[in-house]
Amino acid sequence: MSDKSTHRFYGHGIPGVKSEDLGGKLIVMEGADGSGRSTQIAQLVDWLETGGRPTVQVGLKRSTLVSEELQKAQEGNVLSRTTLGLFYATDFADQLENIILPALKAGFIVLADRYIYTLMARDMVRGMEEGWLKNLYGIAPIPDAVFYLSVTPEELVQRNLSKNATLDYWESGMDLGFSREVFDSFLKYQAAMSDAFRQLQKTYKFDIVDANRSVNVVNKDLRKKISLLLNNE
User: Which fold has domain 4-151?
Assistant: First the structure.
């Protein structure tokens, strides 16, 4: 008979953490900047908590341990691919230990604004091996649901420019040398990220959601899927 706890983590998990102690639900929202993740999560939190479901939110660069240092390092635009990847892995591990696992043990719904898949996709686009990344993130609990908000690169450009009037250096993949022109680099990088996500989807089987649609239509779709998950408890 297989060890039940191995089914709750992607790999070796966390020593001393038993799957039967994790009574909450982990729901992940993936997608590029401009895909609508934050908007959808905010609406889902209101909906869940109004329905009596306590929630906790996590996301990238929110660790009190390294988030400030990571932000400063990124502003210099000089991080190597390995250093950048390990910075994000540390950020994730700290939130896992101090926020995600305690919340799941307490029976909360944890809503993650991106998860290990974004981190893996970014590193894969930068040439790092998928097998090494799977081992690195073997500590990650398997989510109860993962929704990837898929938006075309052209639509992402318009959304990011309308929101920020500029394109982010890292989200444009300027460190990769796709193009010296940020607009062109953004399109090529986001296309490469989309390909990486589709490769990961074959392994992790997350739900691809068409987020080119309106916010309300997407949210209605997500609520329906999450309701099915919660009703099957």
Answer: Rossmann fold (3.40.50)
